[in-house]
Amino acid sequence: MAALLLGLLLFAIQSPPVPSRPMADGGPPSPPTSSPTDNGTTSHPNGTLQQLPQIIIIGVRKGGTRALIEMLSLHSAVAAAQNEVHFFDWESHFQKGFPWYLSQMPYAYPDQLTVEKTPAYFTSSKVPKRIHQMNPDIKLLLILRDPTERVLSDYTQVFYNRLQKHKRYQPIESILVKDGEINLGYKALNRSLYYVHMQNWLQYFPLESIHVVDGDELIRDPFPEMKKVERFLKLEPQINASNFYFNKTKGFYCLRDHGRERCLHDSKGRAHPHVAPAILQKLYQFFHEPNKKFFELVGRTFNWK
């Protein structure tokens, strides 16, 4: 009997899960120790709950989504999912339904907003409708960089991935150009045709529901861009300039949160491969008209080449 009472006592004092914050090096998900309700939440006795996101960072790949969610998590009113969920774009995940999606969300307090980020959402044609069906009033964050720079970052990621796996890779020139012209079959180019994908999103969401973050400015000076994000999300002003410091070794801004400093993973901010000026010029010319169409769609311009 004594052993039984001791076991019950230990069970009662176990620490409950706490709201999640994304970490540059990842971390274990909160344990599934709670039961689902019928209102899109999963609650825990300590007052935290898992809830469907009120904010989604929809893209774009190599636009700065990891930096954005890390910076957004500096705000105490935000609880961020640690991993890319790929619920709306991967059929194998979508078929599991919303209970599975909910289980991927962090534990948060009732007054916190939950955010997840999956960069592939922006360029997936089926995603806008699916997200709208879940919540037509959701807030969407889209972070974009100069289309040419984004293409080069896209190639750089694949290049290093293949290098680490001792796989062969193609020189960037042979991928970008085919028979003397821009290779329209290169998927990375399609991802940088922002107006094409934005048109699809605007069929389901008003422009007022989508905030476009300038990824190039976020790299150069993150604080002003994050203040715009706070205003869009109607968050109490909390993120300040002291949350950012420039790391000369890494060459980009890192974060300072309650005295703790952290930087993005070493895979971020890698140098791009050298590209012949003539090929770069072809890229700039290729994106000139698509960029103009995007500016017209969103009613603002960006300092893209």
Automatic annotation (TrEMBL):
Choose any GO biological process term that the UniProt entry carries and state it: glycosaminoglycan biosynthetic process
Keyword Transmembrane helix among record annotations: no
Q: Which residues bind 3'-phosphoadenylyl sulfate?
A: K62, G63, G64, T65, R66, R145, S153, Y253, K268, G269, R270, A271, H272
Q: Which Enzyme Commission numbers does its entry carry?
A: 2.8.2.-
Record carries keyword Transferase: yes
Query: Where are the stretches annotated Disordered?
Result: 19-48
GO CC aspect terms: Golgi lumen
Substrates-to-products reaction catalysed: alpha-D-glucosaminyl-[heparan sulfate](n) + 3'-phosphoadenylyl sulfate = 3-sulfo-alpha-D-glucosaminyl-[heparan sulfate](n) + adenosine 3',5'-bisphosphate + H(+)
Where, per UniProt, does this protein localize? Golgi apparatus lumen
**Domain Sulfotransferase spans what residues?**
53-291
Q: Which domain of life is it from?
A: Eukaryota
One GO molecular-function entry: [heparan sulfate]-glucosamine 3-sulfotransferase activity
What are the protein's UniProt keywords?
A: Disulfide bond, Glycoprotein, Golgi apparatus, Signal, Transferase
Disulfide bonds, paired cysteine numbers:
C254-C263
**Record-annotated active site:** K62 (for sulfotransferase activity)
Q: Where mainly located?
A: Golgi
Secretion signal, residue range per the UniProt entry: 1-20
Entry function: Sulfotransferase that utilizes 3'-phospho-5'-adenylyl sulfate (PAPS) to catalyze the transfer of a sulfo group to position 3 of glucosamine residues in heparan. Catalyzes the rate limiting step in the biosynthesis of heparan sulfate (HSact). This modification is a crucial step in the biosynthesis of anticoagulant heparan sulfate as it completes the structure of the antithrombin pentasaccharide binding site.
What family does the Swiss-Prot or TrEMBL record give for this protein? Belongs to the sulfotransferase 1 family.
Name of this chain's protein:
Sulfotransferase
Q: Which organism is it from?
A: Seriola lalandi dorsalis
